[in-house]
Amino acid sequence: MMTGVGWIPLIFVTLLVIGTIGLGFYVQRSVRNADDLYVASRSVSVPMNSAAISGEYLSAASFMGIAGMVMKYGYDVLWYPALYAAGYLFLLLFIASPLRRFGAYTIPDFAEGRFSSPLFRKIAVIFVLVIGLFYTMPQMKGAGVALVNILHTPYWVGVVLVGAVITFNVSLGGMKGITFVQAFQYWVKMFAISVPMFILFAVVGGYSGHMKTFGNTGDEGKSLPRFLEDTTITYKPMLPANEITFPAGTTAEFSNGAEVAFLTVKPIAEALSKPENLILSVLPEQTKVRSIAGKEVDFYVFQAGSSITIKDPISIGSGDELKSVPVKITVFPAEGNEAVHMLYPKGEIVPNAPMDKEWMEPYGPFTNKYGYPLLYTYSLIIAIICGTAGLPHILVRFYTNPDGKTAKKTAFWVLILLGCFYVFPPIWGALGRNLVPQLYAVTGGAFSTDSVVLTLPRVLNSTMPYLGDILSGITSAGAFAGFMTTFSGLLVSITGALAHDIYGNMINPKAGPGQRLKAFRISAVCGGLTAVLLGTMVENFDINMMVGWAFAIAAASYFPMLIVSVWWRGTSALGAGTGMLGGGLLALASIVAVMLADKGWLPSLSVFFAANPIIRTLAEQPAIWAVPLSLSLIFIVSKFTPDSIPTDARQKMLVLHAPEELALRSEYIKEQGAAPGAH
């Protein structure tokens, strides 16, 4: 779809990367001990920490993913930006101050200290790693997408490049190093998401003007985006990115040939779903059999230069039960090719795009994709609200404040900073539907709707040479700042679990300061390599969807443990551990099952989910059952295991909630007999 290197965006991104590495070197000179690496010596001011937390929280999902999902699905996904910000209110009210008063380096420190149980530390470490690695995947996807759009390199190059830069930075400066970087990059992201939008408004018209072009009643509501010029779209042979849904009749040309299977979005009568009934053009005689989702499917071999005309959706039922079922094709490259290139003429309907009415209304194509929109929506709300209060890399940030009072002030200012940012991504998605509709044509990958904030500014090149490239350079730098800051925090969290919790407390508790610093840096490299490997495997998943899954796992594991441990004196170690493991592992299993089915690695599972949409809904959004399950397990098991309630539970609850002026306890870790420098 694009040719040539984007030199101007490349310059902006290069400057950002150089600045990030430079800050890492600068701060590294002041790193003296583990306090600096893990909690920045607990001396970060409220303005600095609130900007740093906001910078870390505003990930690729916030900068690229929300805009992409709003463009793809419509205002049905406004839950994401609203809940990302609202989740912090929950954190502010119930968790931030008590957690800081307790004093620790990591959340596993809190788990062990609250329940006087070294075993609980091991359980907590598992979920630090699981949530952290899950959250790194969308950051790596953002890196790959950004670099493909700038340099047109293979997807994996961006993943490896960003992974290497951040791993290097974290291993140098730890928490102290990334705090300055994250605070600086919050303002980079705020500038990059807002200023280009105001310039776009001045040239192509404001938000309200573009919204007036969408209809939501009668025939106007059935309007669909059309290609604004002749456009060649590339489809790689990977599910689900090579599946194309046609919401209306469309003509296209296979520039280099293709192998094509014809289906419908939902099963219909066999007589109606025959390939010859789904297209107006002539089917080629040559066929080939492939296995798709465990079934043998006939693929028709189209030669290079041949055209195809898809029919309008098939009408089934009658009266109030009348429904339209769109045609869907699956394409694979012809023999000898690596991808399928399809040429869509100007004015043709863009595939995969929802109608205006569906796009503008709640319970639309996102939450209603399996037929249970309310269930999907409420589960999403629970996942993000509760998950925010259970993200280890965010929670550990409050340990960098001097005390609980400043931790609460920090959380308050984070709410303000996040609210200012989240005004803009949905606007990018709305303008993208009008101005770069070609992004709908691929459901996943580097040139899908996830790249709208990188692609949209380039429409201004026709108005003023290089203006669009300059603005695209700014948004590209903002995107890089998005996944670099979040990946930095995630990597510190993962590294802390490996170096402090596993090495420093389980493998070699007697390690000296030098050994612990070395372990931190080796762990950073191991965590970075694992994140890069996982990132190369998720090109076709939506960025925001993957972040939502990380939130769901956090909501089902850490959140129940933290909220109950902080506020209920009767919580037992066995109860908290059982609830955390039960809810967290089941949520993880259901999400992994969905990912394996969508990747086509477990065809039988794909068939099962297709036949049971309610189970698919509960597996894709597990928070609605996993969070209550976890809380119930904690309560029930705690009631039956009073012997595992810490004997000093009253004292610990007092430490969590009493004013710090009473000086009941300064730092939990210090009182365990280890000096700060020894960690």
Helix and strand layout, with pairings?
Elements: H1 7-28, H2 34-39, H3 46-57, H4 60-73, H5 79-94, H6 96-102, H7 107-115, H8 118-151, H9 155-204, H10 207-211, E1 231-235, E2 243-246, E3 250-254, E4 258-264, E5 287-292, E6 295-302, E7 307-310, E8 314-316, E9 323-325, E10 327-332, E11 340-344, H11 356-360, H12 373-388, H13 392-395, H14 404-421, H15 425-435, H16 452-455, H17 467-507, H18 513-535, H19 543-556, H20 558-567, H21 573-598, H22 603-611, H23 613-620, H24 623-640, H25 649-657, H26 668-671
Antiparallel strand pairs: 1-11, 2-10, 3-7, 3-11, 4-6, 4-10, 5-6, 8-9
Structure commentary:
- With 679 residues, this protein is α+β, with helices and mostly antiparallel strands.
- 58% of the residues lie in helices and 8% in strands.
- The chain has a five-stranded antiparallel sheet, with no helix packed on it.
- The longest helix is centred in the N-terminal third of the chain and has 50 residues, at 155-204.
- The radius of gyration is 26 Å and the shape is globular.
Most strands sheet: 5 strands, antiparallel
Radius of gyration: 26 Å
Low-pLDDT runs: 33-42, 666-679
Shape: globular
Q: What is the β-strand count?
A: 11
Termini gap = 51 Å
Give the helix proportion (percent range). Answer: 55-70%
Q: How large is the share of residues in beta strands?
A: 5-15%
